[in-house]
Amino acid sequence: MSGTDRKPVYTAADLAGFDAQRQLGRPGAYPFTRGIHPTMYGGRLWTMRQFAGFGTAEDTNQRYKFLLEHGQTGLSVAFDFPTLMGYDSDHPRAEGEVGKCGVAISSLADMEDLFRGIPLDQVSTSMTINGPAAMLFCFYVAAAEKQGVPSQKLRGTVQNDILKEYMAQHAWVYPVEPALKIIVDMFDWCARHAPLWNTISISGYHIREAGATAAQELAFTLANGFTYVERGVARGLDVDAFAPRLSFFWDVHNDFFEEIAKLRAARRIWARHMRERYQSKNPRSWMMRFHCQTAGVTLTAQQPMNNVVRVAYQALAAVLGGTQSLHTNSLDETLALPTEDAVRLALRTQQIIAHETGVAQVIDPLGGSYYVESLTDQLEREAEGLFAEIQSGGGVVKGIETGWFQRQIARSAERFQRALEARERVIVGVNDFTSEDDHPVEILKVSNDAEDGQRRRLARLRAERDNGLAAARLDALRQAALDDKNVIGPMLDCARAYCTLYEIRHALERVYGAYREPVFF
Amino acid sequence: MAAAKRPIRVLVAKPGLDGHDRGAKVVAAALRDAGMEVIYTGLHQTPEMIAQAAVQEDVDVVGLSILSGAHLTLFPRVRKLLNEAGRDDVLVTGGGIIPPEDMDALQKQGIGKLFGPGTPTAELVRYIEEWAAEHVSA
């Protein structure tokens, strides 16, 4: 689907055979097409959660306090590239990148600073981290312990979705199999020690941003979700012990009704597969809870004020699609990290939808629409077709190893660019309605001070901590990996002993090796 | 006489840790479709790896794609390494999320034209072809 395959009007004939009882059900009941809660936003609004991070932990701590003061209801950590790849700020590969696209976190000490003055038993925190997700999670658990908050009380999410990293976002560390093993370790450890924590956020966002269509985003992401479930079950875990803590993350693009239909279809497909195919018994395992973010890739550098309008429509689609939490992009994010003014406007956009438009009063207001139900069914069919294709190619891991997913996504990105250049598709201000006098907006500059500061901090940390203890903890971690034991406990012990991110990464890399991507274009 | 003109050789590279390769891959495909010989490095390359590949592959042009904000460190490093390898004749160009004032600063350090979001690929093709017509002997 791409917006070109729509009819001018949809009628009852498009819904021949439609069974509202079976395909929709009630809100809060199987198959959850209409939403996961019986009361939806009448009970509680979605969580307004702006992804933020830059510079040092202290810089970002200030931004979090600013957002909380302005009515934000959850935190979301953006890490810098070195952290995303498991490098300390003073590693040679980190040069020039420290604190640039997110906050630099190299040890428990940085994590303590990041949440200073923010009680971790009272906020929920989402962390966008994948390759080294377990390590940053351990820093978080250890930082909470320092505040006197036990892991049992922690609420939040680590993205921890490595399959889509190989497909699209590309912040990986280990090869596929050991990476999946650590993820299942997280499912197991959190089921016992952090029962309120979302162990993974299975993400379509990056797959879509890299070029996928809505149907590809839907299908690839769900296929990844099924793969995690199969790996958990293969470990011997009861599906209902870990499936209720799996969460999802969708991109919300410009094609308004298609995006709403995608979110509705996603819930229905997940519920059916979890109940029918994986035989889960707990309705919480059937329920797809998700976060949405407006599509960064739709923002334009040309006439950047137009982005405010795009974001508002995308956010509205996310709400009509029944999201549990939402990030609205700032108008300047195609140019740099957002300024405080820009991020406040993005947050206000959500608050206006929530409190002024009235759309949150009624659950799934588009349910029963000939058009939206047809689109929902169509996306579901397309997704099932893609599942069959993935399966016949040998499954998700095989498709990553052969580059099949990566090629599918790149082909879609090329098709999109060609359509744009042929002006089969209009982007206002870019290939039509252009103007010479674009008003430039003020942008945020992140200096290199963070890098210098982090180097000094890490030098102090290495000098002041108990280095004997740190080394012993790293050895124990490596031994656990060699013995194929759950690595989360020993990793948490490393975090508590102020082992750094790269030290932990390296200890496991000695056992697991590193991922090498198949290169092509 | 413009007989048997050889194709322009381009190395498309992703320096640093930034994993955004949508732009790099779309550009690589567009340059190939325009008749150039394109080599793509893959992700997470150091400036040393890129300069070495450029020399080994004997390219005319290196196109760097950077969306991480590390452009002021990475572009000059690649330029310097190429110069040290005796390849100051290679054009270093590229694109990504780069503020206009940084583009100006980089051009003063021997980097070619840089392109921001929303640039039609035809514009990149034209720029490289015009540069090559002037600088590359067939």
Name its key features.
heterodimer, A: 521 residues, 2 domains, 5-stranded parallel beta sheet, B: 138 residues, alpha/beta, Rossmann fold, 5 strands, 43% helix, 17% strand, globular
Please provide a written account of the structure.
The complex is a heterodimer of chains A (521) and B (138). The longest helix of chain A is centred in the C-terminal third of the chain and has 23 residues, at 370-392. The two termini of chain A are 23 Å apart. Chain A folds into 2 domains: 30-355 and 366-421, TIM Barrel (Alpha-Beta Barrel); 453-512, no CATH class. Chain A is 49% helix and 7% strand. Chain A is of the alpha/beta class and 521 residues long. In chain A, helix 19 (467-482) packs parallel to helix 21. Chain B is of the alpha/beta class and 138 residues long. Chain B has one domain (9-135): Rossmann fold, CATH 3.40.50. Helices cover 43% and strands 17% of the residues of chain B. Chain B has 5 helices and 5 strands, in the order E-H-E-H-E-H-E-H-E-H. Chain B has helices at 22-33, 47-56, 71-84, 100-107, 121-135; strands spanning 9-13, 37-40, 61-66, 91-96, 114-115. Chain B has a 5-stranded parallel β-sheet with strand order 2-1-3-4-5, sandwiched between helices. The longest helix of chain B is centred in the C-terminal third of the chain and has 15 residues, at 121-135. The radius of gyration of chain B is 14 Å and the shape is globular. The termini of chain B are close together.
First-last Cα distance of chain A: 23 Å
Task: Please give the CATH architecture of the largest domain in chain A.
Answer: Alpha-Beta Barrel
Radius of gyration of chain B using CA atoms only: 14 Å
Q: What's the number of structural domains of chain A?
A: 2
| Strand segment tally of chain B | 5
DSSP helical segment count of chain B: 5
Overall geometry of chain B: globular
Supply the number of structural domains of chain B: 1
pLDDT averaged residue by residue of chain A? 96
What is the percent of helical residues of chain B? 40-55%
Reported CATH architecture of chain B: 3-Layer(aba) Sandwich
Count helical runs of chain A: 21
Classified by CATH, the class of chain B is: Alpha Beta
